[in-house]
Write a structure and sequence with these properties.
Helix 3 packs parallel to helix 5. The protein has three domains: 169 residues, 3-Layer(aba) Sandwich (Rossmann fold), CATH 3.40.50; 164 residues, TPP-binding domain (Rossmann fold); 177 residues, Rossmann fold. Helix 7 links the parallel strand 6 and strand 7. It is α/β, with parallel strands linked by helices and 553 residues long. It is 37% helix and 17% strand.
């Protein structure tokens, strides 16, 4: 049947199971928006800014495992997506970004709102397209979804010339092709299995790849079969239950002291779906020196890139584990688990008094429903959340890990809430919140159950902390001292505004906030001297961990 390009696009989105898209209309996508209107089956969520729409599509994808979709017009509309696309790229999140462009006759003439978004996004997408012929459109859309959600997942951009949206072509419906996951041949795992079996102090590290491959059950089965302690990267939180007795917490620059000690003492690291970023392997030469390293990874480029590995197993983590686990002996007892228990007890016994921000997160975790989704922005509050809010299940935690995008949180929270209908807790700071606070109007418009815990210290807390540690407390432009009344701000947008000023406020305020099924902002007024500990300096080894701010070098 004959269809115009805009209609073909909508039909192809429906083929892929898309029910919701995020975006912002403009001149070069008017035909697409008209087709959306006439079709009426796909919900469109208009955000306050295209960056917020990109983060919303990202949040949608993280909590569902499906591909998020965002639409923007040409020129500034398209360029406003760039940070959101880069965020998804760094964290391997499947997103399809659809942009309009000027018509073919205007291309290359510096026309109004013409921009080479194809060229701009080449380094931050798995693949991208310029569609210049309507006959190519359906195939491009189908291929884009395949690419975004296969292998190492990631964003794909489709730039559509304006004339393509109104040109006609034949359209034949097709069912989406299932993504095939290639099993790893047993022989490639045999040597790794033998090395793991010989290890006395194996340590399992779970990363975001475990969540992406839906391999949480297999990761747990591996740990329980080996009786091996488990640590997590920031992106891996939720891949292993925080309450499990084998879990030692997050590792890395702001990981637990227990995780750091276990990493140093282990003789074998089994890395599942993690790329050993510089926030984990801070000193790449010494991180795994003298250890057997087994890396299960879907992206060949990440094997042996940041840390030298003994066995690099290329393939889907879930498929690899399903083959590997039966090869391994069942261990009933292991002395290294007792080491874990001893270190955890020491850490608890020597813990410093909790600050107000920490207590807010601990109590929020107690009060919130079990299926609550947690989203963070980037900075101190992000690390506090990782440290003090236990994440028990996959796809219940969203944060910008690789790019570290301030302003990510509220857009992602909107996407997560829209996708699931579940309550979302957004933990943010006043610095981050000021970058995306316009999206509160989106949350209010859609009556989304988002509780914003605003860690308000009148500072760019993490940068200030580094200035305190490395720059002689010369706080250059990090003591912000904005005069914003965030409670009244929230109320002016139609949300509920509450405040926590002291410990006695925490439980009653959080109880009220988390009982409401609409946007709530809680202004948590904390000290700018609340810091993130433990901490390891960039480039240093795990034995240099700072656990006491005053006792540091």
């Amino acid at each position: 049947m004959k269809r115009i390009g805009a209609e073909i696009l909508i039909e192809c989105l429906k083929e892929q199971g898309v029910t919701t898209v995020f975006g912002y209309p403009g001149g070069t996508v008017l035909d697409i928006y008209d087709a959306l209107y006439r079709d009426g089956t796909i919900e469109h969520v208009i955000t306050s800014h295209e960056q917020g729409a990109a983060h919303a599509a990202d949040g949608w994808a993280r909590v569902t495992g499906k591909t998020g979709v965002v639409i923007a017009t040409s020129g500034p509309g398209a360029t406003n997506l760039v940070t959101g696309i880069a965020t998804a790229y760094m964290d391997s999140i499947p997103v399809v970004a659809i942009t309009g462009n000027v018509g073919a006759s205007m291309l290359g003439r510096d026309s109004f709102q013409e921009i080479d978004i194809f060229g701009i996004t080449l380094p931050i997408t798995k693949h991208n397209y310029i569609v210049k012929d309507v006959k190519d459109l359906a195939g491009v859309v189908r291929e884009a979804f395949q690419i975004a959600n296969s292998g190492r997942k990631g964003p794909v951009l489709i730039d559509i010339l304006k004339n393509v949206e109104s040109d006609t072509a034949d359209y034949t419906p097709q069912k989406p092709v299932p993504v095939r996951k290639k099993a790893v041949p047993p022989r490639e795992l045999e040597a790794a299995a033998q090395a793991i079996a010989k290890a006395q102090r194996p340590l399992i590290m779970v990363g975001g790849g475990v969540i992406a491959s839906e391999a949480a059950a297999e990761a747990r089965a591996l740990a329980e079969r080996l009786r091996a302690p488990v640590v997590s990267t920031l992106m891996g939180l939720g891949a292993f239950p925080a309450s499990h007795p084998l879990f030692a917490g997050m590792m890395g620059m702001h990981g637990t002291a227990t995780a750091a000690k276990l990493c140093m003492e282990s003789d074998c690291i089994i890395a599942l779906g993690t790329r050993f970023s510089d926030r984990v392997a801070l000193n790449r030469d010494k991180f795994a020196a003298g250890k057997t390293v087994v890396q299960l990874e879907i992206d060949e480029a990440e094997i042996d890139k940041n840390v030298g590995v003994t066995y690099g197993i290329l393939g889907d983590v879930k498929q690899s584990l399903m083959t590997l686990i039966p090869m391994l002996p069942e261990v009933k007892e292991r002395a290294f688990v007792k080491t874990l228990e001893n270190y955890r007890a020491q850490e608890k016994a020597t813990a410093k008094p909790l600050e107000l921000g920490h207590k807010v997160l601990i109590e929020a975790a107690k009060i919130a429903k079990e299926d609550t989704i947690v989203v963070t922005d980037v900075g101190q509050h992000q690390m506090w959340t990782a440290q003090y809010y236990p994440i028990e299940k996959p796809r219940t935690f969203c944060t910008s890990g690789g790019l570290g995008t301030m302003g990510y949180g509220l857009g992602a929270a909107i996407g997560a809430a829209k996708a699931t209908g579940k309550h979302v807790i957004l933990v943010t700071g006043d610095g981050c919140f000021n970058m995306n606070l316009n999206e509160l109007s989106t949350a209010v418009t859609h009556e989304l159950p988002i509780t914003i815990l605003l860690m308000n210290n009148h500072a760019l807390g993490m940068v200030r902390q580094w200035q305190k540690l490395f720059y002689g407390s010369r706080f250059s432009q990090t003591d912000v001292r904005k005069r914003t009344d965030y409670v009244r701000f929230a109320e002016s947008f139609g949300a509920v505004g509450l405040a926590i000023e002291k410990e006695a406020d925490i439980v009653p305020v959080l109880t009220k906030a988390l009982s409401l099924q609409s946007p709530v902002l809680v202004d948590c007024r904390i000290s700018n001297d609340e810091n993130v500990l433990p901490m390891i300096k960039p480039g240093q080894t795990y034995d240099t961990i700072i656990t006491d701010w005053e006792a540091r070098e």
